[in-house]
Design goal:
By secondary structure, the protein is mostly helical. The protein is built from seven helices and no strands. The protein is globular, with a radius of gyration of 36 Å. The chain starts with a helix and ends with a helix.
Length: about 160
């Protein structure tokens, strides 16, 4: 047995991993509804070739349907007033693995977390008191930037003075 096969089997037997059966199959017949949808032949055969056993299509559709409904409820999309949100969510949702989901959820919790306990009070005095004082040892010198308008006026005045002389 290869390491990959052993890893897959150990994950499949883990307590939090769902079995590949239609989750609605055990419902009483009167509580079940049949869903029929047209799909392309190539998509149908892709799923059937991956797992040619009986029950594959109902298992796939049942699991996806159940997960979709769970996500809709989590987002509060539960009635026709949220029809636009429903369409946007379904049209743009992506499937990620459970491991990726856990990693994403963990990083979101860390990123969005707030510090626990009271925060220290801070105002300008507290912040200023905690800062080191930096001395400027050089005295500030006036800017050497020329005042263009003043120079132009002086030049004009000098020109007038030399013309009148």
């Amino acid at each position: 047995m290869s390491n990959t096969t052993a890893t897959l089997e150990s994950k499949a037997n883990a307590p939090n991993v769902k079995r590949f059966l239609n989750p609605y199959e055990s419902l009483p017949q009167e509580q079940q509804k049949r869903v029929q949808v047209d799909v392309s032949g190539s998509d149908y055969y892709l799923i059937k070739l991956l797992r040619p056993n009986s029950g594959t299509i109902s298992g796939v559709v049942g699991h996806l349907w159940q997960q979709l409904c769970y996500e809709l409820r989590e987002r509060g999309i539960t009635d026709n007033t949220r029809c636009d949100d429903f369409e946007r969510f379904v049209a743009n949702c992506r499937i990620i693995s459970g491991d990726d989901y856990e990693r994403y959820s963990r990083s979101e919790r860390l990123y969005g977390s707030t510090p626990s306990g009271p925060l220290p009070e801070a105002d300008a005095r507290n912040v200023r008191a905690g800062a080191k004082r930096v001395r400027n040892l050089r005295k500030a010198k006036p800017s050497k930037r020329a005042d263009v308008q003043s120079e132009r006026q002086c030049s004009d005045n000098e020109t007038e003075d030399s013309a009148s002389a």
